[in-house]
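Usage example:
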Amino acid sequence: MSEQPYKRPPITEAVIDIRFSEDLPAAELEKVSRDFASVYANRETVKNVVAQIGVPPNLEAAPTTQFNQHIGYRLASTDVTELLVLWPATLIVSQLAPYPGWGAFFSRFERDWTRWKKAVGYRKIVRVGVRYINRIDVPVPPEGYIEESEYLNIYAKYPDIIGNVAGYFVQFRAPLNDIECDLVVNSGGVPSPLLNHMSIMFDQDIIMERICPQNDDDIYTLLKKIHEKKNGVFEASVTDRARELFQQ
Amino acid sequence: MTSILFDRQRQGSTSPPLQMLKDALSKETMNLAEAIRTFLHSDPSPGSLLQEQPIAGLMQTSTTRTARVSVEPSLHERLFDALAEVKIMTSKVAMHLDKQWRQKLFAQLDSLHDPDEWEEGEEPLQQESFATFLKAMLAINPERRPGLGLSSLGHLIAAWTTGSDRLTIEFLPGDRTRWVLARAVSGETDRFAGDTPVSRLVEGLAPYRPDYWLRYAEQQDHQPA
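Running the assembly step on the lines above writes:
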């Protein structure tokens, strides 16, 4: 398959996500984020807050609340399509549309990963994820509805008594034993940003948590295997009618 | 075969929160519902930091929120945020846009938000106005790219000029547009104006032969009606 088979790839976001067993100290993370200033024009500090509320059985005691927060850094290219997000235990390289192809995306990951490793050294990896979010924009025909099965081979099926639906959402998780990963797929109707269109989201997340690679060569080999698998799952999941839309 | 309906007016209602049904459901059912809720949890993607993912309404079970850290944003930060938001909005339809036009659009937007040229009291570009602009541009697909300006309320204004004739469209929040055509006829200027939803912009302009402004070939061949 060529590097970029479609004239209008439906990818809205591509993500490579590496998670580590331990947090990087805040001062070190801040310093590392500054090391990327030469390759990302914009840098901002972000905060992730997790709120947990504990409610005792039968309200025998007062509810408790606990807040955990992490400071991270979000770096972006001038056009905000190339993103790098650094959290204490996570490195995320993300590409928004237009998708430049795997070669360019992977090269950027290699560049950022090399810079990260040079700055912080080896840290134990506990998860590697590759996620591709696609949106298929379908022109609305005169009859005012579309058959999702004409565009995707993954969809919700309903008995006739329900008739047409205004929205649906499907999620499943499947082991990919040949590459020792897991696949999570989210799909459903989403609001279209285009006039007179309906859109279907197809979100693939392929995750390695079983035996995570720990050196660069093994990480790159795994990412390439995941990418090939991702392409295989995508092509098997879309129909020729959807492919026509990506070429128009 | 069941299909998805196209209905832009439809506002979907959702089921009540699980906890509200606690006393009406058995413990086993609550456990099952909780297991499904946990299964359906999905982390937002990095690009969603400034904008909610469209599927968020279906999965608002997380108690995690991410936000930019800034107590009181400076002018530079406000302008950067406004630009970043509209650039991310553009990325969502970038596969339908010409690459050169996208680059030119960003250069125009950067210029409109130059901190050195910014005047006190001006509003940066509103996301809702920009959403209307994107829908309009993708619908009318103009060959000739417009000059852009900002109203004092942060609404984007696009203008096409052919000789002394001019088509100006203001993109309003809520998918509305306001437009004015001005053309010289026998030494006088005729003006026509309209206020239409973006979904009817093409129809609204059609009687005035907008290709005179929007297409290259039409400029020499046709005068507007």
